[in-house]
Amino acid sequence: MKKVSGRLTLLALVVVVSVIFFIPSYQPFYQALPGWLKNVMPNKGITLGLDLQGGIHLVMEVDEDRAVEIAVDRSVVSLQDLLVDKKIPVESVNRTGPTQVTIQFQNAELKAQIQKMLDDYPTFTETESAGSANKLVWELRDIEVKRIKDSAINQALETIRNRIDQFGVAEPMVQRQGLKQIVVQLPGVKEPKRAKDLIKETALLEFKMLDEDNQLKLDLPARIPKEKEADILREAEAKLPVGDQILFERAVDKDTGREYRIPYLVKKRVMLTGDVLSDARVSIGQFNDPYVSISFDAKGGREFERITGDNVKKRMAVVLDNTIYSAPVIQERITGGRAQITGTFSMQEASDLAIVLRAGALPAPLKIIQDLTVGPSLGKDSIDKGIQATLFAGALVVLFMMIYYRTSGVIADFALALNLLCLMGALSALNATLTLPGIAGIVLTIGMGVDSNVLIFERIREELRLGKAVRLAVDGGYDKAMLTIIDSHVTTLITGVALFLFGTGPIKGFAVTLCLGIGINLFTALVGTKVIFDLMNQRHKVEQLSI
Q1: Global pTM exceeds 0.90
Q2: Are residues 480 and 532 in the same domain?
Q3: Per-position b or e across 237-248, b if 16+ CB within 10 A of its CB
Q4: How many domains does one find in the chain?
Q5: Are 428 and 19 in contact (CB under 8 A)?
Q6: How far apart are the first and last CA of the chain?
Q7: Taking a C-beta distance cutoff of 8 angstroms, is the pair 15, 418 a contact?
Q8: Mean pLDDT within 479-486
């Protein structure tokens, strides 16, 4: 009796634990519990997947070629600074192709001196097609191009994850697909457009100086309608000074509420980039208007102090993704490594900007190539249909077992109910994501839940036909069926693990419920039903077994 009582206690403990973990998944009942009880209970249950609670599914592609161009542009800036430091006079340093840098100079004697600088840039190689004594053409090595492209995918993946984590989406899925695609699933998102904008924004923060000397010469208007940007760029293209560009600041007319643009002539040279930021957060100004306060790391703080000290009384543009957010006059050297990004922000826009700055800039623009939005009504319909399928399948199995195996079939049905209860408890304990294929896995588990009992019952029937007593027949049936049951479950478990390791989203959801169902089914078949048969034989000497 001691052996049976131990297994019975284990069975009761498993049931209680499963119920405790499952309760948070049923929110109406969980919310009705007293506060002290909720404090000691788990507060997370089963999370519904994208196909059940709605949300967005995005497949994005990283612009790898643009990532290479950005890397070369940064090398150009670095090279310009190095030439200034070494006091080597050159006419220009420009990117003249996706992977090429061209250096123009008047004195041919400088060529050998500049060539020595190539040692500081081992990722570049000099091309043989320069064709001029006053020009050098460097090209990015193929192996470095490949490294930058691969790094761009991985960096974009990490940046998107960081942004989504700060956005506060429960159970997101962000993973690489193929060579240059990223799959993002955000279940339960109520503002799909805001989420997509947050993910896509490159967030390349740059500090550039305004070219105030040539601003007046171009005769740029003080403000223009936002749809006139292309016209201004086209008109000024021929008159643009070398090394300058026109960028626009967004602004809103307080009287009419209409959005307009302020054009600025900006030097292309980047003085500082956002990769030296250590923090970004929303603050409130003296007129109750939100702005983004940014802090630089030690290196960025020193550089920002030097730049502001060298450009007192000049205007510096704060540029994010080629849009000017503010262009203040530097009144004095700014120490302490802090600055502000002001503009016509709403609180939500300022918060989103702080998120993307904290999470870091994407290494290259993203292009959405697949955009699916699943509505919550579709998810509710899927849940309803899934529950109906589960109940219908369960009812048919229960009915069949009762008719075919009679009393023993009722015991098998008890094991089936126990199996489902433990499965739901396990999913809740793991805070697993339940998807539509996961529901299919639960339905499959119903069939598997009685499959083991069918093997055991047939073995018991064979033992009874040999004239053995009920107790011996039951023990013999379980002993002889055990290896077959374990073998079938282990082989299925291997398949389930393979599906989980190599599958994606929906397939993983199916694999999770399948693997958990297999493990639980072993317990309920070999322990749960055996306990009931042992109790029946110990309390009453069973002469005949209804099987």
Answers
A1: no
A2: yes
A3: eeeeeeebbbbb
A4: 3
A5: no
A6: 24
A7: yes
A8: 86
